[in-house]
Design goal:
Layout (H helix, E strand, L loop, with lengths): L5 E2 L17 E3 L2 H4 L4 E6 L2 E5 L3 E6 L4 E4 L5 H14 L4 E5 L5 H4 L10 E5 H21 L1 H4 L4 E2 L3 E3 L2 E6 L2 E7 L9 E5 L4 E9 L11 H14 L8 E6 L6 H22 L7 H4 L14 H13 L1
Parallel strand pairs: 6-7, 7-8, 8-10, 14-15
Antiparallel strand pairs: 1-9, 2-3, 3-4, 4-5, 5-6, 11-12, 12-13, 13-14
Helix pairs in contact: 6-7, 7-9
Bound molecules: zinc ion.
The site of zinc ion has 6 residues, from loops.
């Protein structure tokens, strides 16, 4: 067990186009993580790291802030290797945008000096639901989890926290329930970059099984409102998929509205609950989104919310 609040186990074990400027694109060392991770330079010291789930990091002369730790210690080690190709400065902060395993299970490979931040709700849910999930996954894919432990964020906040690093002020903020009850976003107003976590999905169906679909729509409005002035000049890094402009928040809000309205129609028509997911017809523009099996889970959640 490390100095952190950790859990050890005996077995050790969306849609829009890229709109970022001055991008250098390269494939990260696929050997370490075993898939196709990509690092994008967003400018202003910001980088997006994209795999099955996304991470991101801000590099300054004084240190580094990382947003999200990916889905396993092995994947996080590959992320750290990429960061080290860019900077040897200390990783001062790690922010978990929410409690889901694919954003937090790499926490344990960050240096002990790294302070891990999250919302209070994120920490509490990870403490409760993280250990059983970790145990399952570390049995299924032991190579991904070997030699590491689940580390829980040690610094929590309720509304917001400003982290200053290399003279840059990065706002870590809770803007309302959405993908979970404790999503945080990280905002750099100077460089006009927002790390949105899973409040945004790009090219992927939004996963709503732990979500609050009605609140999520309002939260997306709040997210878009953070990107002011000139939102089209801002970059958002979603939790899954390519970085893009804040208009993605409007696209996801529309998706949620459409899905809610379809579920409501089916409920009003008296369709048996278990037949509702199969009866939902989404507009053709959503046909190419990845992970279509998320629809059934999201519909199940919306039914519960509407009952
Ligand atoms: Zn998530």
């Amino acid at each position: 067990m490390s100095r952190r609040t950790g859990f050890s186990f005996a077995l050790v074990g969306c849609i829009a186009t890229v709109a970022v400027i001055g991008i250098s694109l390269r494939t990260a060392s696929g050997e370490e993580a075993g898939s196709k991770e990509v690092v994008r330079n967003l400018g202003g010291g910001h980088y997006a790291y994209m795999g099955m789930s996304n991470s991101g990091f801000f590099v300054s002369d004084e240190g580094i802030l990382v947003v999200d730790a990916l889905k396993s210690p092995r994947h996080a080690k590959a992320l750290l290797a990429e960061i080290r190709k860019i900077s040897d400065k200390p990783i001062v902060y790690l922010v978990n945008t929410h409690w889901h395993w694919d954003h937090t299970f790499g926490n344990g490979v960050f240096p002990e000096a790294t302070k891990i931040y999250s919302t209070k709700a994120c920490k509490e849910r990870l403490e409760k639901d993280g250990p059983p999930k970790w145990e399952t996954l570390s049995k299924e894919t032991p190579d991904d989890y070997e030699g590491a432990e689940l580390v829980i964020p040690e610094v929590t906040f309720v509304d917001e926290e400003t982290l200053t690093i290399g003279g840059r002020k990065l706002l870590v903020k809770y803007i309302g329930r959405g993908h979970t009850d404790g999503d945080a976003v990280v905002v750099d107003a100077e460089s006009r970059v927002i790390y949105a976590g899973d409040l945004l999905f790009n090219g992927v169906h939004p996963y709503m099984a732990d979500g609050y679909s009605k609140d999520w729509i309002e939260t997306l409005e709040a997210l878009h409102a953070l990107a002011q002035p000139e939102p089209e000049k801002w970059t958002v890094v979603p939790g899954h998929g390519e970085p893009t402009t804040p208009s993605l928040a409007k696209d996801i809000a529309e998706y949620i509205r459409v899905l809610r309205s379809e579920v409501k129609k089916a409920l009003d028509a008296g369709t048996p609950e278990k037949e509702i997911p199969g009866s939902i017809k989404l507009p053709e523009k959503y046909a190419d989104l990845k992970y279509p099996w998320f629809i059934e889970m999201s519909v199940g959640r919306i039914i519960k919310e509407m009952k």
